[in-house]
Amino acid sequence: MDRVFIEGLKVDAVIGVYDWEREITQPLVFDIEMATDIKPAAASDDLSLTLDYFAISQKVTEFVQQSSYELIETLAEAIAQLIMQDFGVSWLKIKVSKPGAVPNAGNVAVQIERGTL
Fold this sequence. Notes:
This protein has 117 residues and is of the alpha+beta class. 31% of the residues lie in helices and 32% in strands. The protein has one domain (2-115): GTP cyclohydrolase I, C-terminal domain/NADPH-dependent 7-cyano-7-deazaguanine reductase, N-terminal domain (GTP Cyclohydrolase I, domain 2).
């Protein structure tokens, strides 16, 4: 199975459990790995036969900007379901990073895998 990657997708979102976090946006960074068969697209040079990473990035960005979750775990799960349902992805791995969330740490993140290869 082939993989399509979207790495370092930055989106500002309302995210967090503390009252002050509910009043601001904070940067999140998404790394998304999706399994697909790229052979048909490669053979025909046809975008409709592969995962359109631009369309997926736009959909994720819009979803995150409109969301208001407390936990990045919940957001990661929601994005996984969105991509799998809307783009027919059977397996994916998503890492959601929240840089600056913990003093003296460069980053905190969760990573999930969903589906089957």
